[in-house]
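Why UBX domain-containing protein? Reviewers of the renewal asked for a concrete example.
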Amino acid sequence: MSGSDEQIDVDMNGLDDHSDRNESTNHCHTSDNISSSGSSSGTGSRRPSLSSTQSDESDNQRHESSPTSGVSSGEGSDAELMVDNMIDSSDLHSSGDTNRFRAEFELKYGSTHPDFFVGTYNQAVDAAKRELRFLLVYLHCESHEDTDQFCRSVIISQRFIDFLTQHNVIFWASSVNYTEGYSVSQQLRESTYPFVALIALKNNRMTVVRKLEAITHLEPLLAQLNASVEHNRSSLLQELREREERNMNQLLRQQQDIDYEQSLAVDRERERLRLEEKARLDAEEEAKRRVELEASERLERMLRLREYLVGELPAEPEPNDPNATHIVIKLPNGPRLERRFLKTECIKYLYYFVYCNKDAPLKFAIRTNFPATNIPGHSPRLEDFTFADDHNRTITSVKTDAPEPTLLDAKLGSRELLLVQDLDA
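Here is what the prediction returned.
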């Protein structure tokens, strides 16, 4: 009867497939079975073929055990069994064995028992590793003489159930007569029954930190389990701190990434607004430049038109010509213009004359003083002329078929005072 730690590296990839094994075969050995080394445990040995070193260790542990409890001390051995990824992947998604074992167990011992983990052994190991919990494995051997007493005095006892609950232990159980239970028994290397193994995360590996065999009484089993839990709790707490630190660092990196992305987004938005504002200002500047250019070109053409229209004016008649009219024109800013025109001349020449004066507005109307009447026609317009692509040096008047009114049509007398009105004012 023993309670020990062992270290044996396990590789389930080399394990024989026992799926075709007759599950009714009895894999347990009672006290009538004698080991090949000539020793007997008193309760039966599961493996007579253990190495001499392991047999000696087992014998020593039995000699050191209490004669009443059959429990050895020996926590913290440098020999520990690694249990990561032990069972063949073909069993990973089958929970049929554990469900069947639970049903058979409840049929015999009732519904008062620990909360059996529903799932495969590998899933239980993964859950314990993921949740940083202890995993207690119970291998049930129906034919062993101590199994019934162990189930009744330990497994279904309220104190055992409370212990598992108090320490948040995952409890996985299976019969060694089932394929998965038998495979687990091989890997955990039990030597007799009842058999329980406490597994925990240690040095980032799932490790058997205590194996308890041939212990049939509650008190010594709880004592050893409690000692192992207390002894190995620091490993879980250390892993918890490391996970929290990793999570904190991950959260910090994530927050830094978020802050960085937000900063980039702010920078991108700022750059977008800057480019939009630049584009707007550039567009405004371009529009202003075009307006100024068009205004400059228009002004240039209008000034060039003045020079052109001077040459278009008809000759001024003699002062004593009876067909002439003497016209005095008052500009908006005060200066006066005087000229004689034949009454038969077109009114447009009157407008040409005013337009060619540098003090005259570029867009204007002419009216009589009294009574106030507008003189027909309008100031010269650029659209009434064509400008050749030679810096506006060649100008041509646009001809129309409509008759042009004369000064006589405007009923102007021999002497008239006319006023110029600035239409842009």
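The first helix runs from residue 52 to 64. This is the kind of structural detail the renewal will allow us to pursue systematically.
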